[in-house]
Amino acid sequence: MVVDDHRKIRDPLAVYLRRHGFDVRTAPDAAAMHMLLRHERFDVIVLDVMLPDGDGFDLCRQIHAEHDSLVILLTALGESEERVRGLELGADDYVVKPFDPRELVARIQSVLRRRSRTLAQGAAMPPVAVEEIPAQPPVRRYGFAGWVFDVDLGRLTRPSGAPVALSEVECRLLLALLQHPNTVLSRERLLDLTEGERSGEPAFDRTIDRQVSRLRLKLSDDARQSELLRTVWGNGYRLVADVKVLA
Fold first, then answer.
1. Highest mean pLDDT among 34-43, 118-127, 131-140
2. Which tens digit of pLDDT belongs to each residue from 74-112?
3. For residue 83, which phi and psi values (nearest 5 degrees)?
4. CATH 3.40.50.2300 occupies which residues in the chain?
5. Model confidence over 20-62: pLDDT tens digits?
6. Is residue 57 within 8 Å of 85, Cβ to Cβ?
7. Are 222 and 126 within 8 A, CB to CB?
8. Which segment of 4-8, 62-66, 198-202, 212-216 scores lowest on mean pLDDT?
9. Helical packing angle, 80-88 and 56-66, nearest 10°
10. From 17's CA, which of 8, 121, 126, 133 has a CA 20 to 30 Å away?
11. Predicted confidence (pLDDT) per residue in 181-197, tens digit
12. Domain 138-246 in CATH 3.10.129.10
């Protein structure tokens, strides 16, 4: 879905995306977007941050909380703070206006590839005869300081039992930290762990500190646990917790 209140951007972009094989719906505002979301599922939502009836950042957060759509924000040139804010709120990527539609196609294909790899992680298994199919294996989960992270579901649960919405980037970042607890991980190492197997796709080095900051905020359940994810100045970041693999 392409959500933009400017018809001269929205309609030609939809035509261009259809020529590249995408099934596209368009919405001129937040109300129309919500109407479409009530009736259809969308893999990707290209969302303008400036809509007449809604703030794109709030809408991005709402989409991730209520739907499984990926979100690519359209932001204005020079508004770097807005782009950072969007990533902190869980946007999967952003494109700066004015943009080449070829770039947007590449961004869409990139986030879709990352989503496909995430869904396929741990799912591949050799074919077996029907009578040999084993019981469904338990979802891989990590427990740390009262928190629980379901890897395959991409779901984080607070010690209180309340769920915490995570973006795909945050899921990869948290998994890397959980696999290396109480270990200082440099920015370069975190990039290797979260993006290394995605050669050819844009890395997130320009915002790695922002991503760590937003994940730290989500891990701050209360004052006692505000230091779960610590900055080791000049070296990187460390998850300070005993991590257990749960059944």
1. 34-43
2. 887 555 565 566 566 667 888 888 888 888 998 898 888
3. -65, -40
4. 2-119
5. 999 999 999 999 999 999 999 999 999 998 899 988 888 988 8
6. yes
7. no
8. 198-202
9. 20
10. 121
11. 999 888 878 877 776 44
12. no
Could you give the dihedral angle defined by the CA atoms of residues 61, 9, 77 and 60, in that order, rounded to the nearest 10 degrees? 0
On whether the 2-119 domain is CATH 3.40.50.2300, my answer is yes
Q: Distance between CA atoms of 23 and 95, rounded to whole angstroms? A: 20
Residue 40 near residue 23 (C-beta atoms within 8 A): no
Q: In whole angstroms, what is the distance from residue 108 CA to residue 121 CA?
A: 20
pLDDT at 64 over 90: no
Q: Is the pLDDT of residue 135 over 90?
A: no
Backbone angles phi, psi at 233, to 5 degrees: -55, 130
DSSP for 109-158? HHHHHHHHHHHHTTT------GGGPPPPPPPPEEEETTEEEETTTTEEE-
Q: Give the contacts of 179 (CB within 8 A, at least 6 positions apart).
A: 193
Instruction: Tell whether omega for the bond before 101 is within 30 degrees of 0, i.e. cis.
Output: no
Question: What three-state secondary structure class fits 67?
Answer: coil
* Strand pairing category for 70-76 and 93-97: parallel
Which residue type, as a one-letter code, is found at position 164? V
Chain region(s) in the chain for CATH 1.10.10.10? 138-246
* Predicted local confidence at residue 4, as pLDDT: 95
CA atoms of 24 and 158, how far apart (whole Å): 37
